[in-house]
Fold this sequence. Notes:
By secondary structure, this protein is α+β, with helices and mostly antiparallel strands. The protein has 2 domains: 29-139, no CATH class; 147-211, no CATH class. It has helices at 2-24, 50-61, 88-98, 148-152, 157-171, 194-207, 215-219, and strands at residues 32-33, 39-45, 66-68, 81-86, 101-105, 108-118, 128-146, 178-182, 187-193. The strands form 2 sheets. Strands 3, 5, 6, 7, 8 and 9 form a 6-stranded mixed β-sheet that branches.
Amino acid sequence: MKLRSYLILSFAALTVASAFGQTSSAPQSQSRTTEHGLTKFDLDFPGGTPGELVAAIQKAMGRPLNVIVPTEFASHLLPPLKMSSVDVAQLFRALVLASQDTRFNNGMQEAVYNGFETDGKPPTDDSVWYFFVRERHQQYQSRFYLLTPYLDRGLTVDDITTAIQTAWKMQGNEGIPTMSFHKETKLLIAVGDTFRLETIDRALEALKAPAPKSKSTAEMPANSEEKKP
C-alpha cells in the first residue's frame, strides 16, 4: 500500500514539474514570423533618434537588426510611431512616405525626406538597412497650350485634360501639375515640373494625327464614277 502511494505521489510530482518547465520555457517576445520570413511585431516608439528607433525595433522583434546610421544623421529626430503587427519593411516604407516635407523657394519645389532603405530584394530579417536624409529639387514653370484646333475637330476640354491626367496618374501621384482652361482665349494653362509638362506636349502631338476615314468612304472604289442620267 505504501509503495502504491509513493508511486502516485512521484507521478504527480513529475507532472507538475513538466508543466512548470513548459510554462517557464515559453517565449517572452510577442514577435512572430510571416510566411515570407519577415518577423511581425508591435511597436510603441515615443520618438527619438534613428539609433533609438533601431533599439526599440530590436526589442520588439526579439532579435538583432542590421542597420547603418551615418554619423551626420545620428542626431536626426524621428516622430513617434505606434504600430501593430508590422515588419521592418512595412515600417520603414511608411516612415519614408510620412517624412516628406515639401516647400517652395524662388519658384523651386524642395522636397526633403528621410528613412531607412536596403538594397536587398526582397528584404529579409537579415537585410542591411541604412538611414538616409535626401533633398529633391524641382523647377516649376508655366506653359500655355492653344486648344482651338482640337476643339474645332469636335474634342472637348474634358476629353483632352482627362487623357493627360490619366497619364500622370500612371506615372505616380507625386508632383502632379495643375491645369486650368481659359475660355476667352481657349488656352490651357498648366503649372508643374518640366518632366510632367512634357506629357501635355506628347498628348497634344498625338491628337494632331488625322482622323480615320469613315467606313463608307474607305470601302468606296477608287475609280468609281457617278452614273449619268
